[in-house]
Design brief:
heterodimer; A: alpha/beta; 6-stranded mixed sheet; 4-stranded parallel sheet; globular; B: alpha/beta; 9-stranded parallel sheet; 12 helices; about 50% helix; about 15% strand
């Protein structure tokens, strides 16, 4: 196992063969401007202090590290520590990145932000920051996802954002991203595109990672304070990969810490119906960068399947591709059924209802511990609870059959989802 | 001599801009797309851009996106692109217009070899910038194909110079900040961009994005070396080869009225 040099990416945004910029020429000037704004802001004490103030007094950082005692018993005695990004304002880690990019938007003198969103968590975070900063905000969301996540659509609109359902292609996150890029090309002089994950053209993968590193920086210190040593593994779900990259990055040089990423295995990686490019995809170019992706033999992007809208994406951040190839991190597919079972365990053992995305990390953690063999009571793992599950209660209710058909029919949420007036 | 160089030499002698038309392979069907490309040439289009359908055409507006989605659903494959080039290239200079991933997946060297063998003159790659293009540029130069890169109103003079140095055949000037599609007027920024590009390169400068009728073609032809039309022709292709031929005639008349 070799640790990658910490200086990645290079000046052009490459992580080994991955990353870079595969974009229309029209966007290059804006990407250069953004890279420069990011670089200078990191060295500007006022910027750093303002972001720190927002993260503390607005987003609620630091988030706790919860010692999950009943879950620990469930997995054979390993110490299980939960990094509680679900307790951050807006309900997920997405706010960390969005506040950073909002400050950069202000620094660049732009007054409009756009975003893509899958589960709606990044859209909600962007709409929130836009309200706080007084920006105009447009969020692109696949039509399929607006149906799966109707409550988040309502949240964004309540926050003053315009939500545009995208009905092209597969009607999910991939197509919302295409539409956001099209908006950006046309409006780049006044608009900043707040990409929500460690994906896209340089500088986005490195910049979003830098804004999400706070997760791992806090978790590492909290673990040292609580346990007196580093964890044996840090485990996170990976769609685009921002919560995982934020957790992993401060541990890259700690060779004893295993980095475990959990992709959406959908119906099972072997069925082909999944969203696990690092596990079962191949290198290619999508949405501005080279990374692993799900593609056919012609290089056409393949459809993905996952119960989790936030992981239902055919690509992944280029730094994850690099960590995979270098062997520093390992990645696995977690099926819908495994994730939902883990979600239920966490709810019943700890009283924490996590997002379905995060449930993939819990299922992956249970697998990883089982693979260590024998007595695991000496092991310490940190699982990133990247988001809370309020948005997923409807999906969970259907999955577990928690409400009767009569109750479903009477539900105003269902009526809203189906476009009727309550 | 590369067919593009021959074409622009001829247009210079005729003191007019070249007319370049785009259609994607497989829309409305494979045969229908080749018929439409040939009708375009009969109507007076000087060079054909054969589009490679792609699932995520980030630089295209709704007209082209809907057409390439339909082409993919109809089974259009990358290999069909070479068949189309083989059918069209005896009649007009033929370039491929393709997003990068299908070409990377095919293999840049293999793509260049097969495109050359089919009679192709080059390829426009709208999401590939010179900085990321080394494998493609080497393959294209080696096969005497023209790699065509883009400049945009936001490009700095330094970047325009890089695009000019790396491109062969011509430079594609995106007339506006935006995606493909018909517009009521071609952006004023196009002429300024062509002027800035000419200071950095001797290559012909062709303008695309937003040109849809003879009048707009004539206006652009007054200052550009080539006029590129896409969405309007794709829309006509839905109505069949006759509609494509009629629009091509109107556009060809336009570039001649725009004689400099």
């Amino acid at each position: 196992m070799t640790a990658p040099p910490p200086s990645l990416p290079d000046a052009a945004g490459h992580f080994g063969p991955y990353g870079g910029r595969f974009v229309p020429e029209a966007l290059v000037a804006a990407l250069d401007e953004l890279a420069e704004a990011h670089r200078t802001s990191q060295q500007d004490p006022e910027f750093v202090a303002e972001l720190d103030r927002l993260l503390t007094t607005y987003a609620g950082r630091p988030t706790p590290l919860t010692d999950a005692r009943r879950l620990s018993e469930h997995v054979g005695g390993a110490r299980v520590l939960l990094k509680r990004e679900d307790l951050a304002h807006t309900g997920s880690h997405k706010i960390n990145n969005v506040l950073g990019q909002a400050l950069l938007t202000k620094r660049m003198g732009k007054k409009r932000v756009i975003a893509e969103t899958g589960a709606g968590q990044h859209g909600v975070a962007t709409a929130t920051a836009a309200a706080l900063f007084g920006f105009d905000c447009t969020v692109y969301m696949g039509e399929e996802d607006t149906r799966r996540q109707a409550l988040n659509v309502a949240r964004m609109r309540l926050l003053g954002a315009e939500v545009i359902p995208v009905s092209t292609g597969t009607k999910t996150l991939k197509d919302a991203t295409n539409e956001a890029f099209r908006d950006w090309v046309a409006n780049v002089e006044t608009t900043h595109y707040v990409i929500g994950s460690v994906v896209g053209p340089h500088p986005f993968p490195a910049m979003v990672r830098d804004f999400q590193r706070i997760i791992g920086v806090e978790a590492r210190q909290q673990c040292l304070d609580l346990v007196g040593r580093l964890p044996d593994a840090v485990i996170a779900c990976v769609g685009g990969g921002s919560n995982a990259m934020g957790l992993f990055h401060p541990f890259l040089d700690d060779a004893s810490v295993a980095l475990v990423g959990c992709e959406a295995g959908g119906d099972g990686v072997e069925t082909g119906r999944h969203a696990a490019p690092l596990t079962a995809g191949s290198p290619g170019v999508l949405h501005g960068a080279r990374s692993y992706l799900m593609q056919d033999e012609d290089g056409q992007t393949q459809n993905t399947t996952s119960i989790s809208a936030g992981l239902d994406y055919p690509g992944v951040g280029p730094e994850h591709a690099w960590l995979r190839d270098s062997g520093r991190a390992s990645y696995r597919g977690v099926t819908d059924a495994q994730a939902m079972a883990a979600l239920e365990v966490l709810a019943k053992k700890e009283g924490i209802l996590c997002a379905i995305e995060s449930a993939h990390a819990f299922a992956g953690a249970f697998q990883w511990l089982a693979e260590q063999g024998g007595d695991v009571s000496d092991l310490v793992v940190i699982i990133n609870t990247s988001g809370r599950g309020d948005k997923d209660v409807d999906t969970a209710a259907r999955w577990f059959g928690l409400v009767t058909p009569a109750e479903v029919a009477a539900s105003e949420v269902v009526k809203l989802t189906e476009g009727e007036s309550p | 001599m590369n067919p593009l160089d021959a074409l622009f030499a001829r247009c210079r002698e005729e003191n007019r801009a070249a007319l370049i038309g785009y259609l994607p392979v497989g829309y409305p069907s494979y045969d229908g797309s080749v018929e439409a490309m040939l009708a375009m040439v009969e109507g007076g289009v000087d060079a054909v851009e054969v589009g490679v359908p792609y699932t995520d055409p980030g630089m295209d507006g709704p007209v082209i996106q809907v057409a390439v989605d339909a082409a993919l659903r109809g089974g259009s494959r990358v290999a069909h692109v070479f068949d189309a080039v083989r059918a069209v290239s005896p009649h007009a200079a033929t370039v491929v217009m393709g997003y990068w991933n299908p070409i990377e997946k095919y293999g840049p060297a293999r793509f260049a070899t097969d495109l050359k063998a089919a009679g192709g003159a080059g390829a426009i790659t709208p999401d590939l910038i010179p900085e990321e293009a080394q494998p493609w540029v080497e393959a294209a130069y080696g096969a005497d194909l023209a790699p065509v890169f883009l400049v945009a109103p936001s490009s700095t003079d330094e970047r325009i110079a890089v695009v000019g140095r790396t491109s062969r055949g011509f430079v594609y000037a995106a007339s506006t900040m935006g995606v493909t599609g018909t517009r009521s007027a071609v952006s004023d920024r196009a002429e300024e961009l062509v002027g800035r590009t000419r200071k950095q390169t001797d290559l012909p400068v062709c303008v695309g994005l937003g040109v849809s009728d003879g009048e707009q073609a004539a206006a652009v032809a007054r200052y550009a070396d080539g006029v590129i039309v896409g969405s309007a022709l794709v829309r006509a292709a839905a109505d069949g080869p006759d509609a494509v031929r009629r629009l091509s005639e109107e556009l060809a008349d336009g570039v001649r009225r725009g004689r400099r």
